[in-house]
Write a structure and sequence with these properties.
single chain; 768 residues; alpha+beta; two-stranded antiparallel sheet; 7 helices; elongated; zinc; coiled coil; zinc-finger; zinc ion binding; repeat
Length: 768
Amino acid sequence: DGDASELERTRQYMNEAFQSGAMTCLICIASVKRNQAVWSCCGCFCIFHLVCIQKWAKDSLFLVSSPLTDDDFGKKDYPWPCPKCRFEYKRSETPSRYYCYCGKVENPTVDPWLVPHSCGQICEREFKPSCGHKCLLLCHPGPCPPCPKMVTTTCHCKKAKPVPRRCSAKEWSCRLPCGRTLLCGQHACENPCHAGDCQPCPRVSKQRCVCGRQTAERLCASPQWQCDQVCGKCLPCGNHTCEQVCHAGPCGDCPRSGKRSCPCGKTKFTLPCTEDVPTCGDSCDKVLECGIHKCSQRCHRGPCEICRQEVEKQCRCGKHTKRMPCHKPYLCETKCTKIRDCQKHQCRRKCCSGNCPPCDQVCGRTLSCRNHKCPSGCHRGSCNPCPETVDVKCNCGKTVIKVPCGRERTIRPPKCKQLCSRPPTCHHSTQEKHYCHFGRCPPCRQPCQKTLTCGHLCPVSCHDEALVKQTGLHQSAGPWEQPSEPAFIQTALPCPPCEVPIPVECLGQHEVSPLPCHSAHPYSCKRFCGRLLDCQNHTCMKECHHVTKLNGSADGKKVGPECSQCEEECTKPRPAGCPHRCVLPCHPGDCPSCLQMLKIKCHCKLSVLYIECLKLTCADSKEKELLISCKNQCPKELPCGHRCKEICHSGSCPLSCSQKVKLRCLCKRLKKEVQCSKIQEGQVSLECDALCKEMKRKAHEIKEAEAKAALEEEKRRQQAELEAFENRLKGRRKNKRRKDEVEVEQSSWQKYKNLIMLPVFGVAVVVV
């Protein structure tokens, strides 16, 4: 909210610090590098090389302190100024060491991540004007920006409530009337709330002068004023009047009263104010203007005469003496032969005191800018930088920057915000808008818009000044010769083929596709032709092709002479049941009737019948049943096992069997003849009578007796086999005892194995 000029200066210095070659030492007109020792002025913050500013201060002190007379030499401490802002520094303030911007670190190290010549610490320099706060930025060039701290402050007139504001803009106005009493003591300040003292009261009022004799209308701001009349009041002596102009208060005593001295001041007299003081008659003895001799006249009024005594004077150079009046200076005609401070020219001043003044000739040496000559007086050492500035302009001359003379060769021209005003070099009436620049204008990027042969406008970018690479212009003498860089020439290229999409139908009229205008002609879509051939069954299988319309036919889908001819067999569906193909080639309309004979087996599959295909396919279900029947008895067996009694028929045989069969009871003793179908249906059954049951009981008893006898016979046979087996085991045991001479003690298994094995074998035999 405050003055942004200091902040803008800080931003400018920061930008110059980071841009290579942007910071320039105004003494040597050379760029300030990161690794060079520098010094910054505290007035204008301009940066100089440390060596350059030391030499500048030394030369300035030498030139300024060169005394004009011998008496002033070495008595004054002359200052030296900044080369840019002329801010004066004392001799003791001549820089001798390299410090960072904030002055904390001596010889700061070069850090690529910091501002050049910065220590990287917090600046902590006090703001100007001082507000009690310190700069919080990192060590930086240029002035510190306005104080950003927030403080609570009230307006200038103290009427408004305190509000938080930036410290740099803490003084503000509430815009209400000030209201403070003015110096006149009668009126109040009517100006809006303002800083500082109130302005003088602008109102007019009648005021008396200091002596009160006159009254005039005057501004309230100046209530006291004096008129032009002499006071004229009688003094206390009664002999003289007050000679002061309009004054306040008493007039005071008479100025001729009291003790008064004679003109030489040696004798005092007490006389009335009406008498003048007489001379004392003694010698005057006042020191004359020469400062050596005294006035020899008697006490007198007025100034003393000049010194007329004869003295032997020595000239200023000290080479000659002469007697002459004291008040006259003595200068000889001898010219000084000493070399002046420029170390080039002799002094040549008459009767020089030895302390020769600086050379009064113009230096005239060419300055470092190579454009001007040094306008200073002749001097030692290198000349000061050129004081002139040069305007560096953009191409159009509307944007200008001032740079030190000599830097115009290395400084970049300023960036101009004006549009380029050059006429276009292509066929367009106006060129694209771009900023002012040096060199050739950029290539035109506007659409060409030339009318092509097809009538469309060229849509590509302008190609009137295209760069074309030239090849084959230089033939190399051999493989040792280095190939030269390709040469480019600027030439106008023809417009490219028109790419405007045009809807085009394919040859076979299958589709419409957008094609570029330069190639917009009928084409093959690579599909099959698809037109219906004369057979009315198949379509043309050729790739999409041109078809000639015949007899002015408006139908574009009809077959033409370019289409293929159908060579296929007739593939139309045959009547149901006809296995033969159509004898005609592929044709339109219905196929002719089939007259071939069919070889078909009858329903019973025993006989082969020959029937016309037409009769069979045209017959209904009953007629087909009769045609396929062989008229013989059906050979199939019924579920009951009898042969079907029907004539050859289709499908399954009837389930009701009319064959007569014999029905018996369960014991097969009783029998009866009944129809087979009734037996199958379970309608007829034959039960056993009492005689059958008696015979069945007796037969059962006989069977039980036979089974019991067989079981007893089996038991006897098994008993006989067991006894025979035991006898064989006993005989073997006796023979083994005879062979063994030594008796071996038997184990428990050997002792009791017979008792265990016999029952087991017995059970096995019984089972077998």
